[in-house]
């Protein structure tokens, strides 16, 4: 696709349920990032993929959060047993190479998660 | 603690005025990027400045970088109402093999027509 695609765009779930958020990066981009943004706040880094491996998953808040990437393309962020504090926008981004090499990262429109 | 912190948190100006936003960071970097976000949607890349550069221009945008002070500024000249958005700086970390960008808290800019 032309840009980073995320689904669902909006998700309301009950506390305790599991949710899956999907990210389809720009074709050919080897690096993929997940960030979380609470209302009116900055972006909180969650995890970074290079290909299918995750060299840095230091931002995952707890063991309820996990992410995988298959085929060097689509990534899924899974939140188990959701809590109200998980409510946020989950932003996915991709880049041709690592950001540290000066590559621009391109963001999707985000998945708005509300836990009630 | 945050790698990047923007100042001010909020800025309100009249159309036609210049807007200056500052960013400070803590560790050595390879490059610093500025992004814009409209109403909580996805971020859009504005400009990248490398650690060996001091100033960069793109249209009405001017970015400076002072690595000795670990700070950067974004200047928007002749602002327009359409410039109303949140602006974030993002830095990498030059040590280690981490590929992530760390974002600051952002500056919310309001340009009044």
Structure characteristics:
heterodimer; A: 116 residues; mainly beta; 7-stranded mixed β-sheet; 11 strands; B: mainly beta; 6-stranded mixed β-sheet; 0% helix; globular
Residues in β-strands, percent of chain A: over 45%
Give the helix tally of chain A. Answer: 0
**C-alpha Rg of chain A (nearest Å):** 13 Å
The helix content of chain A, as a percent range, equals: under 10%
Major interchain interface with per-chain residue totals? A-B, 30 and 28 residues
Strand content of chain B: over 45%
What report would you give on this structure?
The complex is a heterodimer of chains A (116) and B (113). By secondary structure, chain A is mainly beta. Chain A has strands at residues 5-7, 10-13, 19-24, 31-37, 43-50, 53-56, 65-69, 75-79, 88-95, 106-107, 111-115. In chain A, a hairpin with a 2-residue loop joins strand 5 and strand 6 (53-56). With 113 residues, chain B is mainly β. In chain B, 0% of the residues lie in helices and 55% in strands. Chain B has strands at residues 4-7, 10-14, 19-25, 31-37, 43-50, 55-58, 61-66, 71-76, 85-91, 102-103, 107-112. In chain B, strands 2, 4, 5, 9, 10 and 11 form a six-stranded mixed beta sheet that branches. Chain B is globular and about 45 Å long. The mean pLDDT of chain B is 90. The interface between A and B is medium-sized, with 30 and 28 residues.
């Amino acid at each position: 696709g032309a840009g980073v695609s995320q689904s669902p765009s909006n998700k309301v779930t009950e506390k305790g349920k599991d949710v899956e958020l999907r990210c389809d990066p720009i074709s050919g981009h080897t690096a993929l990032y997940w960030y979380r943004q609470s209302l009116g706040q900055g972006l909180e880094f969650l995890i970074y993929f290079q290909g299918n491996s995750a060299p840095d998953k230091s931002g995952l808040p707890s063991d309820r959060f996990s992410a995988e990437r298959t085929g060097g393309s689509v990534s899924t962020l899974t939140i188990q047993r959701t809590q109200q504090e998980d409510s946020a926008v989950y932003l996915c981004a991709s880049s041709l190479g690592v950001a540290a090499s000066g590559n621009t990262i391109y963001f999707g429109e985000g998945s708005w998660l509300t836990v009630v | 603690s945050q790698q990047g912190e923007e100042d001010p948190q909020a800025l309100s100006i009249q159309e036609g005025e210049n807007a200056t936003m500052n960013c400070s960071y803590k560790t050595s970097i390879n490059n610093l990027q500025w992004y814009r976000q409209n109403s909580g949607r996805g971020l859009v890349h504005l400009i990248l400045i490398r650690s060996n550069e001091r100033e960069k221009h793109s249209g009405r945008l001017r970015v400076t970088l002072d690595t000795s002070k670990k700070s950067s500024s974004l200047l928007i000249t002749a602002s327009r109402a359409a410039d109303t958005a949140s602006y974030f700086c993002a830095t990498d970390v030059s040590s280690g093999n981490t590929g992530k960008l760390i974002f600051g808290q952002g500056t919310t800019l309001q340009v009044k027509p």
